[in-house]
Amino acid sequence: MYIDTHVQLNFSDFDADRAMVIGNAKKAGVKQFIVPGVDHLSCRTAVHFAHEYPGIIFAAVGFHPYEAPKNPDLSYIETLLKDDANKNYIVAIGECGLDYHQYKGEVAGGRKDVQQKLFREQLEIANFYDLPVIIHCREAFDDLFATLNTLNKIPRGVVHCFSGGLQDLRVIQELGLYVGIDGNVTYSKQLATIVPHISLSMLLLETDAPYLTPVPHRGTRNEPKYIPLIAQKIASLQGKEVSVIMEETTKNAQALFSLPENERL
Ligand SMILES: [Zn+2]
């Protein structure tokens, strides 16, 4: 079986047919889902769906760097974490991180120092609660490493939707962080040069659905049922059997997020 380690099943894009999307993913062998929050509402809905689909959906709670300019209240995340009813339903902090990508000449996440502060505070929450962290990083790898290095302890975690270069990959693997690869691996020339260098023991599969739809479905909404297409592309880039990619990445996801055994899957 596969695990989709980053899928926004909590977004309204799936309101009309969420149960069918999950059912179709299961038929494709994708049986568990890590659903991250990006803001207040999506953290709440991620936890809600983890309760609705126990043992199948697991929530992460955090604030995306795009939220940084709004100065979000991190005590909300702690309220969710401290609620005993949510025990075993929240398996990570995130997604959080740094995004320096410019849109119409402006950094979408706003001031870099404000992003760094929001990120750092969430890393500290991850350490305090001993949870892994789901890191979003776009065009900000040097500051990502600088921020991580200000901590007493680097949390366990994954750099999701990896978009860096070979040197960035080397540092990430030295830090013991996992690398998340998405559907853009089916068409990105950059990723085709990177993926052969990712250690299989540090690799995770994710769709980031509804975004980043893989070939041959580009132009339509992405869904977790397409995880096997990502695994196949990685298998061909690494010269390995797809079954090996499936088994190893599932093992990695279970280890990183401490997922409980689910006999019914
Ligand atoms: Zn992201």
Give a structural overview.
The structure is a single chain. This protein has a single domain (2-256), classed as TIM Barrel (Alpha-Beta Barrel), CATH 3.20.20. The protein has an eight-stranded parallel sheet. The model has no long low-confidence stretch (mean pLDDT 96). 37% of the residues lie in helices and 17% in strands. It has nine helices and ten strands. It is globular and about 40 Å long. It is α/β, with parallel strands linked by helices and 265 residues long. 46% of the residues are buried. Bound molecules: zinc ion. Zinc ion binds next to loops.
Q: By helix and strand content, what is the structural category? A: alpha/beta
| Oligomerization state | single chain
Radius of gyration: 17 Å
Helix coverage percent: 25-40%
Low-confidence stretches: none
Distinct small-molecule ligands in the complex? zinc ion
Give the termini distance in whole angstroms. Answer: 9 Å
* Domain module tally: 1
CATH top level is Alpha Beta
Counting DSSP E segments of at least 2 residues, the number of strands comes to 10
Fourth-level CATH superfamily: Metal-dependent hydrolases
Mean pLDDT across all amino acids: 96
Total count of helical runs of at least 4 residues: 9
CATH topology: TIM Barrel
Envelope shape: globular
| Major sheet characteristics | 8 strands, parallel
Give the H and E element order. Answer: EHEHEHEEEHEHEHEHEHH
Going across the biggest sheet, name each strand in turn.
1-2-3-4-7-8-9-10
Return the CATH architecture. Answer: Alpha-Beta Barrel
The share of residues in extended strands comes to 15-25%
